[in-house]
C-alpha cells in the first residue's frame, strides 16, 4: 500500500515538474526573436537586450557621388566593398578623424551601392559590442549574403577594458568568424583608445608592451583611413555640390556667405557645408 502511494506521489510530482518545464520553454520560445528575412531587408540593427536582429524597414540612402572632399578615401572603401561583395579577399575598415567629414556617411553609402549584390549591413551600437558573437550563427547560416557589421563611433575610454574582448570578437577565438563577414567602424581616434605619455612610464619593465596592447585592436582593421579638416577650397567645392543639388546658383557671393557660416559654426567640413545650404534654402522658402 505504501509503495503504491509513493509511486502515485512521484508520478504527480513528475507531472507537475514536466508541466512547469513545458510552461517555461513555451514562454522562452515565444520570446525568442525571429530571424529576419534577408531577401526582404538589407539593413538591420542588433538588439543587445534580446539578442535579435531588428530589420530597418527604411534604411537611409546616401549617394556616394554626393560625398565631396574625400575622393581617394571613397575609391578605397568602394573597391574594398566591391571585392567583398563578389567574394574576393577584403579587409575590415576603420575610418577615423574629424567630425562631420563623411566617415559614417561613406560607410552607409556602401549599402546603396551593393545591396543588390547581396550585401547586408548590421549596425551595432558601441554598448552592445560584446554581444556581437551572438550574430555569428545567423550570418553563417545565410552564407549567400555578405555582411558588414557597422559600428559608429567606436571609442574606448582610458578605464575601459572592453577593447581587449573586442580583439577576440574580431578574431573569433577558436571558432573563428564567418567568412561572409567584415567589420566597418568609425572613430574620432586613430587607435580607438587614448594614448598618453604615461603609457611609456618608468613603472613598466617593458613600457612598449602597454603601447602595443593599445594599438593591437586598430591593427585588426586592414584599411585605416584618416579624415581631416577640409581646406577652404575643398569646403567650397562641397558647398557648390550641395548648392547645385538644390538648384542654387554658385558664385562669389555664395562662397562669401559659406565661409562666414563656417567661421560662425567653428568648423569647416562636409556637414557644415550641408547645413549652410539647408539654411539658405529654408531662408529662401520662408
Secondary-structure map:
Blueprint: H1 2-31, E1 43-47, E2 52-55, H2 71-85, E3 93-97, H3 103-114, E4 119-123, H4 136-141, E5 146-151, H5 162-171, E6 181-187, H6 207-215, E7 223-227, H7 232-245, H8 252-265, H9 270-285
Parallel strand pairs: 1-4, 3-6, 3-7, 4-5, 5-6
Antiparallel strand pairs: 1-2
Helix pairs in contact: 2-3, 7-9, 8-9
Walkthrough of the structure:
It is a single chain. The protein is of the alpha/beta class and 286 residues long. The chain is 44% helix and 13% strand. The chain has a 7-stranded mixed sheet with strand order 2-1-4-5-6-3-7, with helices on one face. α2 runs parallel beside α3, α7 crosses α9 and α8 crosses α9. The chain is elongated and about 95 Å long. About 2% of the residues have low confidence.
Q: How much is the radius of gyration in Å?
A: 26 Å
Largest sheet, in brief, is: 7 strands, mixed
Question: Ranges with pLDDT <50 over ≥5 residues?
Answer: 27-32
User: What percentage of residues falls in helices of 4 or more residues?
Assistant: 40-55%
Q: Give, in spatial order, the strands making up the sheet with the most strands.
A: 2-1-4-5-6-3-7
Element order, helices and strands? HEEHEHEHEHEHEHHH
Q: Helix/strand/pairing class, anyone?
A: alpha/beta
Q: Give me the number of helical elements.
A: 9
Distance between the termini: 94 Å
Shape: elongated
What portion of the residues fall into strands of 2 or more residues? 5-15%
Overall pLDDT metric: 84
Q: Give the total of beta strands.
A: 7
Amino acid at each position: 500500500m505504501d509503495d503504491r502511494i509513493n509511486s502515485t506521489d512521484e508520478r504527480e510530482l513528475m507531472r507537475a515538474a514536466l508541466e512547469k518545464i513545458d510552461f517555461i520553454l513555451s514562454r522562452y520560445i515565444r520570446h525568442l526573436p525571429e530571424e529576419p528575412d534577408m531577401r526582404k531587408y538589407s539593413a538591420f540593427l542588433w538588439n543587445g537586450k534580446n539578442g535579435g536582429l531588428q530589420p530597418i524597414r527604411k534604411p537611409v540612402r546616401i549617394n556616394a557621388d554626393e560625398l565631396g572632399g574625400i575622393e581617394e578615401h571613397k575609391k578605397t572603401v568602394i573597391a574594398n566593398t566591391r571585392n567583398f561583395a563578389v567574394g574576393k579577399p577584403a579587409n575590415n575598415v576603420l575610418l577615423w578623424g574629424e567630425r562631420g567629414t563623411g566617415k559614417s556617411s561613406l560607410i552607409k553609402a556602401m549599402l546603396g551601392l551593393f545591396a543588390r549584390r547581396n550585401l547586408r549591413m548590421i549596425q551595432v551600437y558601441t554598448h552592445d559590442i560584446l554581444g556581437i558573437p551572438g550574430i555569428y550563427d545567423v550570418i553563417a547560416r545565410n552564407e549567400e549574403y555578405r555582411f558588414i557589421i557597422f559600428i559608429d563611433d567606436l571609442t574606448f575610454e582610458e578605464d575601459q577594458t572592453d577593447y581587449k574582448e573586442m580583439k577576440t570578437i574580431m578574431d573569433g577565438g577558436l571558432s573563428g568568424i564567418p567568412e561572409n563577414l567584415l567589420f566597418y567602424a568609425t572613430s574620432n581616434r586613430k587607435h580607438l583608445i587614448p594614448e598618453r605619455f604615461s603609457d611609456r612610464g618608468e613603472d613598466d619593465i617593458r613600457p612598449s608592451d602597454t603601447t602595443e596592447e593599445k594599438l593591437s585592436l586598430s591593427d585588426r582593421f586592414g584599411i585605416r583611413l584618416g579624415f581631416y579638416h577640409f581646406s577652404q577650397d575643398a569646403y567650397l567645392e562641397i558647398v557648390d555640390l550641395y548648392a547645385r543639388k538644390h538648384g542654387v546658383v554658385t558664385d562669389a557671393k555664395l562662397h562669401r556667405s559659406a565661409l562666414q557660416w563656417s567661421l560662425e559654426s567653428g568648423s569647416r567640413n562636409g556637414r557644415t557645408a550641408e547645413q549652410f545650404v539647408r539654411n539658405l534654402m529654408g531662408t529662401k522658402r520662408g
